[in-house]
Amino acid sequence: MGFSLKLCPLVFLLSFFLAFSFSLSFSSSSATQLCSHEHATVLLQFISAFSINKSASSECEYFSGVKSYSKTLSWKEGTDCCFWNGITCDNVTGNVIDLDLSCSNLYGSFPSNSSLFLTKSLQRLNLSFNDFKLSKIPREIGQFVSLKHLDLSYSEFSGQVPNEISHLSNMLEVLDIGNNNIKDTFPYWLESLPKLQVLILRSNKFQGFVRDTKANSSFSKLRVLDLSNNDFFGPLPVHFIENLKAMVNPLEDDNSAQYMGGSFSYEYSIVVILKGLSIELEKVLTVFTSFDLSKNKFAREIPKVIGKLSSLKGLNLSYNNFSGQIPHSLQNLTNLEWLDLSSNELVGEIPQELVSLTSLSVLNLSNNQLVGCIPQGNQFNTFGNSSYEGNLRLYGFPLTKSCDGNGLPQQPPSSFHGKDHELWEFGWRVVLLGYGCGFVFGLLIGYLTFHNGEPKWFVTLFNGQQNQRARNVRKARTRAQRRN
Ligand SMILES: *[C@@H]1O[C@H](CO)[C@@H](O)[C@H](O)[C@H]1NC(C)=O
Ligand SMILES: *[C@@H]1O[C@H](CO)[C@@H](O)[C@H](O)[C@H]1NC(C)=O
Ligand SMILES: *[C@@H]1O[C@H](CO)[C@@H](O)[C@H](O)[C@H]1NC(C)=O
Ligand SMILES: *[C@@H]1O[C@H](CO)[C@@H](O)[C@H](O)[C@H]1NC(C)=O
Ligand SMILES: *[C@@H]1O[C@H](CO)[C@@H](O)[C@H](O)[C@H]1NC(C)=O
Ligand SMILES: *[C@@H]1O[C@H](CO)[C@@H](O)[C@H](O)[C@H]1NC(C)=O
Ligand SMILES: *[C@@H]1O[C@H](CO)[C@@H](O)[C@H](O)[C@H]1NC(C)=O
Ligand SMILES: *[C@@H]1O[C@H](CO)[C@@H](O)[C@H](O)[C@H]1NC(C)=O
Ligand SMILES: *[C@@H]1O[C@H](CO)[C@@H](O)[C@H](O)[C@H]1NC(C)=O
Ligand SMILES: *[C@@H]1O[C@H](CO)[C@@H](O)[C@H](O)[C@H]1NC(C)=O
């Protein structure tokens, strides 16, 4: 008993020591609380400008495949902001480096005086799929000195692109301001951003010429250029295209090969309209290059120089006013997987050399004025007739009008001798038969109408089909509207 009593103070001391060191380690771990109070305050202030409105992110799921949810509901004062939804901190410094508020049901005018813009550590900002009620993109955005990725797509921004964006860090790699209401001319001043790899301006109201750039290094790292669905017009600038060095030869430059990802676990992806579908490309972008100028009013000839963009995987020039012939230089785009030149004013023959494009899996030359025989062999054996429709003087497989062995259109039969004669007779019999049937059917309807006022079964059948069709058209239309 005495022994244990003597030990007591020791045990007491020991347990005290343990408890103390425990609390010490505990307090030291809470001292490494990641998010700074300052950042938390700035973030809370920033989102106080918006209300939560489900319909503000209604396009999110359809176009990005992600379900929208109100990320900012987890943002509570007094908690570590590095654990808030949509926020990633640098795990050493505790600074906020990634703010992803895409698809967050944010609704309201975008504040231009927010101290968020002073967050020097921010590297990626994603505000896509919200509704900023036709706010202007604030000039203050140029103050993010470390920004690499800026995604403002599908968020109801209007006005012009503030050229303060060119003050952004020399780090900017990705700029997506697609699917807004921006009315501006081509933002040349972006040429000064030395690392810009992805530029997406699609589905806005950009207009005017895209003229040549002066500096030789303009847009030299660009891999994805999407200007589609705007009102750009005029000829394509030759020097501008020549300068797209990363598209000319991607292997020349090792730095650009570490595109996306890099040392971060962050998964970058963009939605590219690929082979007619919106497809999200993750990381694949290391080797991905595409050029989409579709749905504008670009005109004149497709410049030969486009054949220099040898790393291109996708080229879409559809729905423009390009005239002249398809340049033979396209044969040099050996990595091309899809080529869409449809709905232009192209004339002449399809260059035979295109047969050498063995990676090509989608080709669309429809709705032009192309003539002659479709080249045969390799990939050309795989394209269906919808690749060529709307060119009335094209011949050969897969079209029904055939070409002879010399690559010349077969002459339509000029006489009705022998077998032709029999065919002709047979043809006439069919026509007469059809005529006769129609006549009898007409008589029957006439008779029924005369007797009963109107043939009910016929009216029901016809109206039913009409209504169904109207419904389908309506559905398709609302979809198309949502997309544009
Ligand atoms: C929610 O947003 C939609 C448009 O995105 C708007 O029409 C509607 O008025 C908003 N509702 C509220 C309560 O603000
Ligand atoms: C911090 O982040 C880096 C890069 O993502 C990672 O390699 C490292 O393991 C992280 N450190 C800690 C302590 O989580
Ligand atoms: C920004 O301006 C609005 C009014 O225009 C004001 O209510 C708000 O406090 C300002 N915010 C900051 C951070 O200055
Ligand atoms: C641009 O490149 C061309 C040839 O590639 C050269 O002649 C010209 O001097 C260069 N201009 C500048 C400003 O570097
Ligand atoms: C932004 O968020 C959307 C939706 O979550 C996503 O599809 C897109 O890839 C993101 N953009 C960037 C640049 O990471
Ligand atoms: C080219 O662009 C048009 C219009 O933007 C689009 O409808 C078409 O699907 C695209 N073609 C390919 C092959 O992606
Ligand atoms: C298309 O180009 C032709 C000249 O090649 C021009 O006459 C015509 O006005 C242009 N059409 C449009 C819609 O720009
Ligand atoms: C294709 O590329 C080769 C080598 O770069 C070049 O010599 C040739 O002129 C190009 N062909 C066309 C039609 O531009
Ligand atoms: C080519 O484009 C037309 C519209 O211009 C479209 O109807 C057709 O389905 C497309 N064909 C292919 C193979 O993409
Ligand atoms: C296109 O091909 C389909 C079957 O693949 C055929 O039914 C159709 O008649 C063809 N159209 C033309 C214009 O050749």
UniProtKB/TrEMBL annotation:
Family matches, as SUPFAM superfamilies: L domain-like
Pfam families: LRR_1, LRR_8, LRRNT_2
Record-level GO cellular component terms: membrane
Presence of keyword Oxidoreductase: no
Keywords of the record: Glycoprotein, Leucine-rich repeat, Membrane, Receptor, Repeat, Signal, Transmembrane, Transmembrane helix
Protein's cellular compartments: Membrane
Membrane topology: Single-pass type I membrane protein
TM spans (from-to): 426-450
Domain of life of the native organism: Eukaryota
Span of domain Leucine-rich repeat-containing N-terminal plant-type: 70-90
Signal sequence range: 1-23
Annotated InterPro entries: Leu-rich_rpt, LRR_dom_sf, LRR_N_plant-typ, RLP23-like
Main subcellular localisation: membrane
Database matches in PANTHER family: LEUCINE-RICH REPEAT RECEPTOR PROTEIN KINASE EMS1-LIKE-RELATED, LEUCINE-RICH REPEAT-CONTAINING N-TERMINAL PLANT-TYPE DOMAIN-CONTAINING PROTEIN
Family named by the database record: Belongs to the RLP family.
Record's protein name: Leucine-rich repeat-containing N-terminal plant-type domain-containing protein
